[in-house]
Amino acid sequence: MYKTIIFDFDGTLVDSKYIFVDVYNQIAKRYGYLSLDSENIHELRKLSIRERFKLMQIPLYHVPLISFLFLRKYGKAMHQLTCFEGIQTMLNQLSTQGLTLAIISSNSKSNIHTFLKSNQITAIQHIYTSRNLFGKHKVMHRLMKDLRITPQEILYVGDELRDINSCRIAQIPIAWVSWGYDPLELIDQNPPDYYIHSPHELLTLLTNSPS
Ligand SMILES: [Mg+2]
Question: Among 48, 76, 137, 164, which is disulfide-ready with 169 (CB 3.0 to 4.6 Å)?
């Protein structure tokens, strides 16, 4: 059924929450936004991205600048990143099954390349990135065109509401993973096709789906 599996990077393959908070707080301090702490993170997770920017007092026109600074600082902290437990085994297994594996991310290509190389992950064949936080569906269309595949042949795996929203626009089925950034109560605004709670569960889904 599914021939190509597209993974989101941050919060789906890699556990980057701590780097995210640390890098964000460095930028917030410099530009006068609110800082993240253990209390407001809990509240923020329930909000949409646009509501989060508003609460943190970040003007939307600052977003491109923040993204630029964020990715640069994030790149310098890459060595602290690791995959969630079970991810590497799962990727190898899916690749052995003959599935094409890709990444679509709002992170930078060079950050992702560096990470995959230093963790000896060779199962990923294609990396696509989107500079627009809300524009992943555009990159999905580009990938489908390049690889000459239809939405029905793809399963997207991601952790955020915006992943689900983009998949709905591109009409690509989506498996939401519960170990990432967005909590269940937020993603229930636009329910995914599958709810996945461990890499092993994803493996089971993709191994048992009829071909
Ligand atoms: Mg993510």
Answer: 137
146-168 burial, b if ≥16 CB within 10 A, otherwise e?
eeeeeeebbbbbbbbbbbbbbbe
How far does the centroid of ligand 1 lie from the alpha carbon of residue 182, in Å? Answer: 8
What CA–CA distances, in Å, run from 204 to 129, 162, 188? 28, 25, 23
Neighbours of ion ligand 1 (CB under 5 A): 8, 10-11, 159-160
Whether residues 26 and 69 fall in one domain: yes
pLDDT digits (tens, 9 = 90+) for 45-98: 889 888 999 999 999 999 989 989 999 999 999 888 999 999 999 999 999 999
| Pair (23, 11) in one structural domain | no
Domain count, the chain: 2
Q: Tell whether pTM > 0.85.
A: yes
Cα 199 to ligand 1 centre (Å): 15
Domain that includes residue 118, residue range: 4-15+82-208
Residue 163 has pLDDT above 90, yes or no: yes
What is the distance in A from the centroid of ligand 1 to the CA of 177?
9
